Amino acid sequence: MFKSFSMELGGRTLTVDVGRVAAQANGAAFMHYGDTVVVSTATASAKPRDGVDFFPLSVEYEEKMYSIGKFPGGFKKREGKASDNAVLIDRVIDRPMRPLFPKDFRNDVLLDNLVMSVDPDCSPELTAMLGSAIATSISDIPFDGPCATTQLGMIEGEFIVNPTNDQKLVSDLALTVASTREKVIMIEAGANEIPEDTMIEAIYKCHEVNQEIIKFIDRIVAECGKEKMQYQSFGVDADLVQDLMTKIPSEEMEKAVFTDDKMVRDERIAALTDKLAEEYAEKPEWVAQLPDAMYQYEKKTVRKMILKDRKRPDGRQIDEIRPLAAEVDLLPRVHGSAMFTRGQTQILDVVTLAPLSEVQKLEGLDTNITYKRYLHQYNFPSYSVGETKPSRGPGRREIGHGALAERALVPVLPTEEEFPYAIRAVSETMESNGSTSQASICASCMALMATGVPIKSMVAGISCGLVTGDTDDDYIVLTDIQGIEDFFGDMDFKVAGTHKGITAIQMDIKIHGLTRPIVEEAIRRTRQARLHIMDDVMAPCISEPRKQLSEYAPKIDMMMIDPKKIGDVVGKQGKVINGIIEETGVKIDINDDGQVSICGTDQEMIDKAKAIIHSIVTDIEPGQVYTGKVVRIMNFGAFVQLAPNKDGMVHISKLSEKRVENVEDVVNIGDEVTVKVIEVDKMGRINLSMKPSDLGTNR
């Protein structure tokens, strides 16, 4: 039965049709936000997936080019692999939804969002986030929702709920917040050095709006919601857990996990597991569940140590950061490099500069962003965690971590006018034990400064964790979480910023939301930590951008020419510009406004190319002096090339102060000579002189 529901959201109408499309999905919502249309569905397999020890949730955000009236690019003219933007939206949808499903649920669940029409002022990603929450809430899939999501901008200090495309272009804040009825469950932000207090206010402005959306979803569920299905629970046998706790006393487990070396801890746990496997050899059903049971026991031990005993597995204080180290110039031939180490987390970042013609061109649904000048890419090889998995290219995690670091650094980059380069930073993970994305921000900031990119401020990032008890007041926030605290804790709250304020936030949690005191403490802790990192570790290594680029980095010179002269510089079929490139070895790019970018590693050749272009676009006038090559000889004189496609003639009488019988007695083809323009006649013919008296010399 088809039903339609509407509410006003950010000054535009959000309409949800239920029962109109996708009737065979467990839950489906036909979402309209302005003229943006997204089909959001939630489906679950009838039976649990065999052999998995996790909840198999998949999220898809499908960008269809017809939604903006365009053909897809490429030979096939068909949408293919998901874009990086689509992957990032998948992750933002996943993060608030995943904690609300039962932890022991093993049925496959797919949240699919098909973008069918895009209104530039009504965000399709926001529509999909709301659509996934609604489709799941009305389905029979077990889900402890609903949750709601709001985007927020800030222009001249004023908050804008769900900003339009034009507003996003001038906004100092791009904030996305998801909430349950009582708590914030996900935060994603990019900001132009927003102060912490302002950011907290913005987060809870979103939270207020989310409560109105949740009331709207409740109304839809009340009229259209299905009864939730019964499912097979995959909890670990309680008798097994109880038995292994008697065989491994809590003191022994604490000793196993209490170390600052991840590999040592893993070896100790593996030894205990192997010992129990031998003892349970006659109970194969227990042996099969033993890894999960040990995981639960280890998790319970770590959480108790932190929450009750105020002891961290590596012995640090609650607000203490692991040992830090920073260095630059590790790689001699690259344009810039830096390494940042925090405990057993280590990132080596490499920066490469290129002309603006190398920017990444984007094909997607966001009409605001057609290219990226700054690319931050993150790699996570298996050796960084002591494993042997071969590389198969970047996955969703790698794309997400790279995008987070990119978002953190974009606000401090120079403009194209200030620094006319495309910039690529690649973060290679050398070792991983917690929050490599934030180490990537620190390493990249130093690498940019080592390269000579004139960034406006230093940026650092750090992550806070959380362990909660039975009540909202029973919790502890941990500064700089390592892997075990992330695995067994409840939160990974990443914040990056400058001395002035925040540039990026990403918050992942495993519980049903955070109270305001937790959010405020995490933001306060991360500020203290990042100031320490910048002032006491990064600045002593490199405190400001270098004034000179590396000798191996390309040099770029800019010049403006009359747009009407572009054709003269390019020449027929590119003959002129290709000739300049071949002669000088530089790379030349010209835009429609007449801006010319000349890029090369040899400054002398850059200057030469610039001089040639200048000669092409400059009108020849009497009195001007040129140096050019003799390109043709006739009985009556020599022709000298002043610029590509611009030749002038030196009459035989103007070759010398003395009488000249034969032109070849003075010049030959290929000679480089200095000449003066004597006349440009009505036919445009250029008459030259080599006489010293005309040149004003004594030769």
From TrEMBL:
CDD domains this protein is in? KH-I_PNPase (cd02393), RNase_PH_PNPase_2 (cd11364), S1_PNPase (cd04472)
Source species, domain of life: Bacteria
Question: One Pfam family, short name please?
Answer: PNPase
Instruction: State the encoding gene.
Output: pnp
Cofactor requirement: Mg(2+)
Subcellular location(s) of the protein = Cytoplasm
Gene Ontology MF terms in the entry: 3'-5'-RNA exonuclease activity; magnesium ion binding; polyribonucleotide nucleotidyltransferase activity; RNA binding
Coiled-coil-forming residues are none
So what does this thing catalyse?
RNA(n+1) + phosphate = RNA(n) + a ribonucleoside 5'-diphosphate
What does the sequence similarity comment in the record state about its family? Belongs to the polyribonucleotide nucleotidyltransferase family.
Per the UniProt entry, the Enzyme Commission number(s) are: 2.7.7.8
Please report the name of this protein according to its UniProt entry. Answer: Polyribonucleotide nucleotidyltransferase
Q: Which organism is it from?
A: [Clostridium] aminophilum
Q: Which GO terms describe its cellular component?
A: cytosol
Cite the binding residues for Mg(2+): 486, 492
